[in-house]
Amino acid sequence: MTEDLSPLLIRIAEALERLAPSPPGAPDFSLARLFRHDAARARFEPARDYALPLDALLGVDRQKALLCANLERFASGLPFNHVLLWGVRGAGKSSMAKAAFMAMAADRSDLKLVEVDRDEVSALPRLFDLLGGRPERFVVLCDDLSFEDGAEAAKALKSALEGGVSGPPSNVLFLATSNRRHLMPRGHVEDRGLIAAAEDAEEEVSVSDRFGLWIGFPPMDQPTYLAAVRGYARRYGLPVRGLDRRALQWAQARGGRSGRVAWQFILDHAGSKGIALPL
C-alpha cells in the first residue's frame, strides 16, 4: 500500500515546491557595479556599466559639482545627504546620476548602484533593511519618482529614509530624479476631494523634505544651450561654424532648450554630414 502511494506523494511534494519555492540565496554583488532590483522576485539583476562619461554632460557644471561632492563624502564614510535631482525634462538628471556614480566607483570596488522602479517604492524599507547589513556601500537610484499612488507610497519612502528607531542604514544613499520638486502628480487635487488631496499633499511634501540635498535643473537659457551644442561639436570633431542658427531652429521646433535637445541636434548634425559618433 505504501509503495503504491510513493509516486503520488513525490508528485505532491514536487508541486508544493513549485508553489512555494525556496527563498533566493544571498545576492552576489561582485558580479557587477550596477544592478536592477526586482522586488517581486527579491532578486538583483546585474547590469552593464553606464558608458556615458561624466565630462560629456555640458551646461550643468554646478549640479555636477554638488552631486559629486556628496557622493565623495558617502563613498569615504563621511556624513552625506540623500539626494533629489529635480527640474525640467531632458536636463540630464538621470544621466548625471549614473555617470557621477561610475566616475566615483572607478577605483572603489565596494561602491554599488541599485536601480529600483518607481512602482516599487513601497518595497524600499525592506530593501534598505537587506542592504544595511552588507559590507558594500549602495547608491539606490529611483528614476522619475512621483507618487501616482498617493500617500501610501509616500509613507513607505519616508519610512525608508527615516529608518524607524535606528535610523536609515549608513551604507545606503537614496538618489531620486523627478520633474517635480515636491514629487506630486499632475491632476492630484482634481482626482480627489479637497481634504484628502490636502492631506496627501502634506504627506508628499514632507517626503521631499527628507532629502537633505536638492539639486535643481532649471530650463537652459540660450547662451548655455549654444555652449553645450558647441561643446559637443568640438568633443566629437564636428564643424562648429554656422552651427548656432541651425541649433536654435532645432530647439524652437522641439519647443525648448535642454541638454537632451542639444545632444539630439548633434546626432542629427553628425548624421547629415555622414559622421559616425562613438555612442
Reconstruct the topology from this structure:
Elements (H helix, E strand, L loop, with lengths): L1 H18 L14 E5 L4 E5 L13 H15 L7 E5 L5 H13 L5 E6 L7 H9 L4 E6 L8 H12 L9 E7 L9 H4 L2 H15 L4 E5 L4 H14 L7 H12 L4 H14 L7
Helix pairs in contact: 2-3, 4-5, 5-7, 8-9, 8-10
In short:
The chain has 279 residues and is of the alpha/beta class. The protein has ten helices and seven strands.
Structural write-up:
The protein has 279 residues and is an alpha/beta fold. It contains ten helices and seven strands. The chain has helices at residues 2-19, 61-75, 93-105, 124-132, 151-162, 188-191, 194-208, 222-235, 243-254, 259-272; strands spanning 34-38, 43-47, 83-87, 111-116, 137-142, 172-178, 213-217. Strands 2-1-4-5-6-3-7 form a seven-stranded mixed sheet. It is globular. The N and C termini lie far apart (69 Å). The mean pLDDT is 83.
Descriptive terms for the model:
single chain; 279 residues; alpha/beta; seven-stranded mixed β-sheet; 10 helices; globular
Approximate helicity band? 40-55%
Number of DSSP strands? 7
What spatial order of strands do you see in the largest sheet? 2-1-4-5-6-3-7
Main beta sheet strand tally, sense and closure? 7 strands, mixed
Structural class: alpha/beta
Instruction: Give the terminus-to-terminus CA distance.
Output: 69 Å
Q: Average the pLDDT over all residues and give the rounded result.
A: 83
Counting H and I runs of at least 4 residues, what is the number of helices?
10
**SS strand fraction:** 5-15%
Q: Spell the H/E element sequence.
A: HEEHEHEHEHEHHEHHH
Unreliable residue stretches: none
- Quaternary structure type: single chain
Shape: globular
Q: Give me the Rg, rounded.
A: 23 Å
